[in-house]
Design brief:
Length: about 250
């Protein structure tokens, strides 16, 4: 039997959509036929992206560290396109800092956005899907290879992403009989605004040189997996963590 990554008829909400991977996900889902609510804090960037994509996109200003914002974001998405059946929880910050130097405030901010925000986004999406009796829901949480790889200088970020992986498996189990599939994607290092400055430094260049292929991943490295996990083709996939890292952890 054939299958398709066509997203015609699906309505998605993507967090962290104002830059980097979130912007790419928004464009890609819309190009594949979905209606897309673009969620982030930077309203001006969202508006520009929504205008670029056209009628298939709507800008939704939201801060994933605040549950009230997430609820309002889903309300706005439903008002624009109807019930959301596809969620990509992508919003994140790098929370960089050696363990003995990073501030308490930065640790709290990193965990609030990366981990709490992902859980709150997923559960609000699931609540809406359950209320609307969605039987083919898709939730994708964006984690990182730092979830399992020791990453000096990224203790808060790495801990938050390890939490995202375990949250994804736990939520998948909770909703396994509810028609909602939950999976996580753990990317390797991709040059995006969150790490661009670092990889231009001498230390960043040394890190790249240690990778087996001595390169960063291209921005298109997650495209096929994201489309698969958001589509009908992933009917039998839930509770999985997909490591896409160009061999960086070998």
């Amino acid at each position: 039997m054939g299958f398709s990554f066509d997203l015609q008829g699906r309505t998605a909400l993507v967090t962290g959509a104002s830059s980097g991977l979130g912007t790419r996900f928004g464009r890609m889902l819309a190009a594949s036929g979905a209606k897309v609510a673009l969620g982030a804090r930077r309203a001006d960037r969202l508006a520009a992206l929504a205008a670029e994509i056209g009628s298939a996109a709507a800008a939704v200003t939201m801060d994933v560290a605040r549950e009230a914002d997430i609820v309002a974001g889903f309300d706005a998405a439903e008002a624009a396109f109807g019930p959301v059946d596809t969620v990509i929880a992508n919003a994140g910050v790098d929370g960089a800092g050696m363990a003995t130097a990073i501030s308490e405030e930065e640790i709290e901010r990193t965990l609030a956005i990366n981990l709490k925000g992902a859980i709150l986004t997923a559960r609000e999406g699931a609540r809406r899907m359950l209320a609307h009796k969605v039987t083919n829901g898709r939730i994708v949480l964006i984690a990182s290879i730092t979830a399992t790889e020791p990453s000096p200088g990224l203790v808060a970020y790495a801990a938050s992403k390890a939490g995202v992986v375990q949250a994804g498996r736990t939520l998948a189990r909770e909703w396994a009989r509810s028609g909602i599939n939950v999976n996580t994607v753990s990317p390797g290092y991709i040059r995006t605004p969150i790490n661009d400055a670092w990889f231009d430094t001498e230390g960043g260049q040394r890190q790249i040189a240690k990778f087996p292929k001595r390169r960063l991943m291209g921005e298109d490295g997650l495209d096929a997996m994201i489309l698969f996990l958001c589509s009908e083709a992933s009917e039998f996939v839930t509770g999985a963590n997909f490591v896409l890292d160009d061999g960086q952890t070998l």
